[in-house]
Write a structure and sequence with these properties.
Layout lengths: L1 E5 L12 E5 H9 L5 H17 L8 H53 L3 H5 L1
Antiparallel strand pairs: 1-2
Helix pairs in contact: 1-2
Length: 124
């Protein structure tokens, strides 16, 4: 049985944060190396097992989430309107280049938000 131990609750840490998988064998090796005694290893395993069974806190949908989704909808609508109105001016290649720039900008913004722990706006 392997367990996942993290530096902070799962809900606040984006992927790539410091996490560590610990097995019972790892604790036995630490006890054999003299870093822990057998009683400490057993107590630590019990503590970590209790954390793993408790699971992460339940996520809740809030009014703030609604505002995030509304903002995303507004941005998509504005970009769609702009693309439609500018088709005659930019042409198909101009729209293609503009779409690539939009995509790169949105990706960079999502990466920045994800690293700061704002997972919902980053996903939008």
């Amino acid at each position: 049985m392997e367990m996942r131990m993290s530096a902070a609750p799962e809900t606040t840490q984006p992927p790539g944060a410091s996490r560590l998988l610990i097995s019972r064998e790892d604790l036995s090796r630490a006890a054999s190396a003299g870093l822990l005694d057998a009683a400490q290893a057993q107590a630590l395993w019990g503590f970590l097992g209790g954390r793993a069974q408790a699971g992460p806190e339940e996520s809740r949908f809030s009014f703030g989430h609604t505002l995030y989704y509304f903002g995303g909808l507004l941005a998509i609508g504005a970009m769609s309107l702009f693309m439609t109105l500018s088709w005659d001016v930019l042409g198909p290649w101009g729209i293609c280049i503009l779409s690539i720039l939009y995509g790169a900008g949105c990706w960079a913004m999502a990466e920045t938000l994800w690293r700061r722990g704002f997972t919902i706006p980053a996903g939008l």
